[in-house]
Amino acid sequence: MLLHYRILNVFTDGDNPFSGNPLCVFEDASGLSTQNMQDLARQVNLSETTFITPGGPDVSANVRIFTPSYEMPFAGHPTLGTAYVVRELSSATDVVLLRMPAGVIPVRVTGTRWTLQAKSPVSYPVDVSHSNLSAMIGLGPDCVAAEPLWVDAGTIQLILPLRSAADVQAASADLKLLTKFATRP
Question: Which of 37, 78, 92, 172 is the most exposed place for a label (fewest CB within 10 A)?
Answer without folding.
Answer: 172
